[in-house]
Structure formats: C-alpha cells, structure tokens
Amino acid sequence: MPDSAKSDPAPVPAAPPDPLLSPPRLVPEPQPGADAEPQGTTADLLVRAGAAVRAERRERLAPHGLPLTAVTVLDVLSRTGGLVQRELAARARIGPATLTPVLDGLEGEGLAARVTDPGDRRIRRVTITGAGRERLRAVRPAARGPWLPELPADHAEAIREYLIAVIALLEQDHHDEQSGGCEWGSPRSRSSTW
After folding, report:
1. Which residues pair with 124 in a beta bridge?
2. Structural domain boundaries, residue 113
3. Contacts of 162 (CB under 8 A, 6+ apart)
4. 114 pLDDT more than 70
C-alpha cells in the first residue's frame, strides 16, 4: 500500500469529566448571549457560600483520610476534658445518629476512646487520645478551609451582625425543635461519611 493511501487515525475525543470527581460549580459560568440570572437572596448566597467553604474543606481534608465531621469531633474533644456523647454531639453540632459511626471510626483508628467516668461508673466519656491530638495537629491547617479576602471595613460589621443574627435564629429554632424530633445532623439533613 503506498504511503499516500495511509491516513492518520482520527483523534479520539476526550472523555467527559467524571461528575463524581468534578462536582458542579455552585455559581454557574455565564453562558454567551444568556440573560444574567439574579444571584438569589442574601440568605441564598449565605447558604451557597457555606456550602462552597464546606466543600473546599472536605477536598483539602481528603488526602489526610479524615472526614470533616471527624475533625470537628477531635477539635471539640481537644478543647475539653472528655464529654458524654450527648454533650459532644451538641458542641460539635451534629446529631447523635451521625456521631456514633464517627466515634466508631475514630476509636477504631485509636484517635478517640470511650472511657468510664471515675466519679460515676454509669457514665462513659469520650476523650481524645495522644494519637488523636497528633493527627488533629497534622490536619488542622487543612481543616481551616480556604483563605478568604478581608471584607471592606464599611461592610464587615454589618455582615458580621447579619451572620450572628442568622446563627442565633437558627440555633434557637434548632433548640425549639429538638423536643419535636428534628435535629441538625440527623440522617434526613446530613449524610455521614463514616
């Protein structure tokens, strides 16, 4: 067959990115010729910003092998002398159903322990181990999340006051709803990584 009859093979199109490895953008890229969509209410933007920060923190923690919830639990334990599970769940702001598998994972890795309270043998406290403190020290920089630019001084106080008001309102609602069976971090509202 003459050389002129040979043709280069057609280029193989690149495979589309795996959606599990490339999550969708929270703020879609503008489409040429499309009308600009409103960005949403302040509350919508707050939720989106929080989701973006959490996603960034999870991504930064992935190489360390600890989910964000586990790091949060270790952080709370590092600042206390040990807590019963109900207190730990409240301080970490996660539901008891989410906390149990996280503690199982941390205990399995030797990062936390459930110990009997010496003052009352009926009580079991969760404590951080030496290995847990070392692991927390290693992952803490990644867990802090992305660096964000400082707000202009004339906006910072108003935004801070708004965020405090939102948190106070939602935490009050959370407290009021606890007796009704609705909890933050319950399986209905948050998925567990462990």
Report:
1. 116
2. 62-144
3. 42
4. yes
Buried-exposed string 123-157: b where 16+ CB fall within 10 A, e elsewhere: eebbebbeebeebbeebeebbebeeeeeeeeeeee
Over residues 144-173, the pLDDT tens digits come to: 877 777 778 888 888 888 888 888 888 775
Alpha carbon 46 to its chain's center = 15
Cβ atoms within 10 Å of 21's Cβ, excluding its own: 6
Q: With H, G, I as helix, E, B as strand and everything else as coil, classify residue 128.
A: strand
Is 52 domain-assigned? Answer: no
- Chain position carrying tokens 């322990």: 113
Statement to judge: residues 135 and 68 lie in one domain: yes
pLDDT of residue 181 exceeding 60: no
CATH code where residue 128 lies: 1.10.10.10
If asked whether residues 110 and 132 sit together in one domain, one would say yes
